[in-house]
Amino acid sequence: MNHLKIWKIKKGHDYRIRTRHPWVFSNELLDSPKGILPGEPIELQDIQGHFLARGYGNPHSLISFRAMSFVQKEEFSMSPEYLTERLFKAWKFRHRSGFRKSFRVCYSEADQMPGLILDRYVFEKNNITYQVFSYQLLTSGMDVVFKKNWEAILKSFVQKIEDIGWEHTFVLQRNDVNIRKLEGLLIEDPVILKTVGSEDLTAINIQMQNVMEPDQNVIFNVNLVEGQKTGFFLDQTFNMRLVVEHLKRQKERLKSRKIKILDLCCYMGQWSAQMVCNMKSWGVDCEVHLVDISELALEKARQNLSVYGVDVHTYKKDVLNLLDIPAFASESPSLKFDIVISDPPAFVKNKKDLHPGLAAYTKLNTQAFKLCNEGAVVASCTCSGLVLLEDFKEALRKSILKSGLNARCLAYGGQGFDHPNLMSFPEGYYLKMVLHQVD
Q: What is the pTM of this model?
């Protein structure tokens, strides 16, 4: 390890890194981080020269050091071989948890690869199974190292997992996210780096596992090039299972009438499709009402639900203005629902947004509860990392009070098992779900 540049941390600033938080800020270093290249391997030591961590540096970021290893004996490098092994370790973790189709392979700090998001999407065409690896590089260090070596890393990785061959593998780069600006990086247009045949990835039928029956697939027609994040949202599988499990306990009651589902910020309809797919198998009849501000999302959601033979109604509307929809408008709306999903984008993106963002969650969920039938199930979500669960619960308490209803809290949810988080890194815990049932 003698080839690694040594950085030392100031006295009294080493508590966080000793507890395995992976970030060190420039003002915590004994000397200036200038003079290295982004992504250059670094060993971090305390003021007395004792080992703390190894990772990579970035002279141009407030977060100057990001840890990738806290084990002194580990052979660490920023080589393609090392990164491939890290990816393979992340894959094995998910594989043990039962993930087989489309899922998150690498979740940045949680997989000791800070700055790398890698998702895998599986689809079938002409009886051939293909996979798409769609990645985002969120830090300057990872941008330099992974972008330069993506082919060597991913090709070796595909050979190791022995699942779908490299000849049937697509690679999509999705560096079109604003967070890159914090690292001084440009926002880049999506690029298909590796393709197979004539597929363009704007209209493919990806396979997701049924949240209740993992051996069964739920198919979604998606646009991976223009869709959110790496092309689709993969993080709600645990929450969907919680909700569907609760519905299953009540399936005999649900069979007594057509169940109306309201899916707020529906995106491409994954919440509704998972619920309808399972409820149809129980003999429950449904109709779905989809609300989203995106015409593309609504069209994809309608298409993804059409295979189940249910009535689908779409509303292109900002969910904070639900009362602009005539059927939802009055104190006694003509439409009321048995299942309501509230899964909006992050209303709180920085600390100054916290107060207005929490007020927005209260407003949205007040409207949601007002649209509930007796006995309705309501799943309220926030993907704002800066919103603590206790703050979100307080926003929901106000929502229920303002709605004039009584509701019991049944369960709390979070990120799917392919989006793990570390106790030492609370910044990685962003998704919260609270499940209520209305009296």
A: 0.95
